[in-house]
Amino acid sequence: MTDQPSPHITIIGSALSGNKGASAMLESAIQTLNARLDNPRFTLFSMYPREDRAQNHYDNLDIVAANPKQLGVTINLLALGHRLLPFLRPLLRKRSKAIRALTSSQVLLDQGGITFTDGREKFLLYNVASILPALNTSTPVFKCAQAVGPFTNPVNRFVSKVFLPKVRTLVTRGRITHELAEGLGLKNLHAGADYAFSLEMDGTEAEQVAEHVDLTFFDDGDVVGVCPSVVLQKKVEARGGDYISQIVSFIAHLRAQGKKVVLVPHSVRTGTHKAHNNDLPLCVEIDSRLAHGEDLLFIDRELSSQQLRYLIGRCDLFVASRFHAMVSSLAMAVPTLVIGWSHKYREVLEMFELEEWAFGHDKLNPAHLQQRFAELDAQRGAVQAKLDAHLPEVKQRSLAQADLIADIVRAPRG
Q1: Alpha-carbon span 295 to 305, nearest angstrom
Q2: For residues 45 and 49, what is the distance between their CA atoms, to the nearest angstrom?
Q3: Is 357 in contact with 377 (CB distance < 8 Å)?
Q4: Residue 150, preceding bond cis, omega within 30 degrees?
Q5: Dihedral over Cα of 244, 249, 254, 260: its sign
Q6: pLDDT digit string (tens) for 271-311?
Q7: With left for phi above 0 and alpha for psi between -120 and 50, is residue 240 left, alpha or beta?
Q8: How far apart are CA 208 and CA 197, in angstroms?
Q9: Is 18 helix (H, G, I), strand (E, B) or coil?
Q10: How far is the C-alpha of 228 from the C-alpha of 210, rounded, in Å?
Q11: Measured between alpha carbons, how far is 8 from 179 in angstroms, rounded to an integer?
Q12: pLDDT greater than 70 at residue 160
């Protein structure tokens, strides 16, 4: 009797470096599936392989290079060859780490946070390229909790109707996404919650963060976390607004009210000034325009997703523009005001009956931001009660997808 090979899972759309929301999703999957499967192995198709390898502390996680060109051209062509040319399959599996990973995996996890949605048609090719190699190697595709739709744009609607039904399971991240997906006629849906709600901390985060941050900052007084976003900056500036000045004005207003402020970049790429997936240059500019003092703390470096979650949990109130900064603040039961740009924010807040605490970037101006924050501050007790009441259920909805993935892995393939 031979030993069964370890289960193998390939992952795309997330990362360890850069966007810590992507890291939180990836690490949640590894944590929860390690607990459910016998010695699983993971392969990450990485957009930033060098950075991800440098931050990889998982013995059972392998990193395969898959930047947009490698994924869209090389990996997809090799997967197509694997499908159409059976006599080449042994050679393709031998020569290509990506094809070897896919063909030995029981499932591909697509952890793209928002895919197949109107207004983001320039990402459609990547959305398709992320799952097409698995489809061509007959590897089941499991789309972890994410936002999809709307589907009114003819191009997006057509592509979505072609490819989304081919997915084994699509976990919707909230009511709005679920209704949009049902409206497209999809039957392969599971109503869930963002995978990052399942992220566990190991208790060493305070010690780790204390190496870089003076944690006595949180010991007294109201601390407000502010998390800007370069994505939101681009959208505000596209309509002629001055995002940086608005955030600087808001932070100055908070400090004038006697509150402490911690400025938190939630997406950081160490060693580059490029803005893609990198809020640090934006936060550096914001910090440079503020008067320094003991009531201001700037997190000027890349921290892990767990370290950021711990730090966010130390805040009394939080203002988020990055989606997974919002998830971390909700997961730590911190009353949160959200400035967003799609339905993906509101549908998560709905799970806590807190959707009123999100508004779109089109409404962002100093007066509106100050007013909404003052209302949150005044109602923080009621908000806190809703967070405490709904958080256990939301975490269960998040964890449920780990059980679904484990069932696919254990099922006979073929």
Answers
A1: 24
A2: 8
A3: no
A4: yes
A5: positive
A6: 878 877 899 999 999 999 999 999 999 999 999 999 999 99
A7: left
A8: 21
A9: strand
A10: 23
A11: 32
A12: yes
Q: Are 14 and 26 in contact (CB under 8 A)?
A: yes
SS3 content of the chain, % helix, strand, coil (to 5): 55, 15, 30
Place of tokens 């009660």: 385
Q: Where in the chain is the domain with CATH 3.40.50.11930?
A: 8-198+395-410
Q: What is the pLDDT of residue 270?
A: 85
* The two three-digit tokens of residue 101, written as one number: 């990973």
Type of residue at 267: S
Kind plus residue range of the DSSP H or E element containing 357: none
Contact indicator for 315, 334 with CB cutoff of 8 Å:
yes
- Domain spanning 205-391, CATH class: alpha beta
CATH 3.40.50.720 fits 8-198+395-410, yes or no: no
Over the stretch 339-397, which tens digit does the pLDDT of each residue have? Answer: 998 889 999 999 999 999 999 999 999 999 999 999 999 999 999 999 999 999 999 99
Residue 109 in tokens: 């996890």
Q: Among all chains, which residue has been given the structure tokens 């305070």?
A: 206
Q: Which residue intervals of the chain bear CATH 3.40.50.2000?
A: 205-391
Residues β-bridged to residue 42: 9, 61
pLDDT in tens, 167-210: 999 999 999 999 999 999 999 999 999 999 999 999 999 999 99
13: which 2 tokens?
Answer: 């759309």
Q: Which residues contact 380 (CB under 8 A, 6 or more apart)?
A: 316, 317, 335
Residue with tokens 């997974």: 324
Report DSSP letters for 136-148, one per residue. Answer: HTT--EEEEEEEE
Q: Give the CA count within 13 Å in the CB-facing half-sphere of 362.
A: 2
Residues 20/205, Cβ–Cβ less than 8 Å:
no
